[in-house]
Write a structure and sequence with these properties.
Layout: H1 2-44, H2 50-76, H3 84-102
Helix pairs in contact: 1-2
């Protein structure tokens, strides 16, 4: 029973991580769409309210960039790409390839 509970807890934890990753990627796609629309809006803008909408667009861009950064940090925290164990694993991989190629 204890092993079954641990497996179930591990599955639920992994399921939650996948869900958070999926939500982050959806948020990122929405961010790119918003950036494209706001940049286009900045390009075509004219009229008496030009200054207001210019600053409004800039504020929205900056705010959403900060929010997407915080969301990404929350989802990927602790996942540094080049950790020490990654370096060790790559060194072993290259040594193994070199050893195999040397005897051929």
């Amino acid at each position: 029973m204890s092993t079954d509970n641990k497996n179930q807890e591990a599955f639920l934890k992994a399921e939650k991580k996948v869900y958070n990753l999926k939500v982050f990627y959806i948020h990122l796609v929405g961010y790119f769409i918003l950036v494209a629309l706001l940049v286009y809006n900045l390009y075509i803008m004219h009229g008496p309210y030009k200054d207001f909408f210019f600053w409004f667009d800039i504020i929205v861009l900056v705010a959403w960039t900060v929010f997407i950064g915080i969301h990404g940090w929350h989802v990927f925290r602790g996942k540094i790409i080049f950790k020490k164990n990654w370096e060790d694993r790559k060194i072993k991989e290259f040594l193994e390839k070199d050893r195999i190629n040397r005897w051929e």
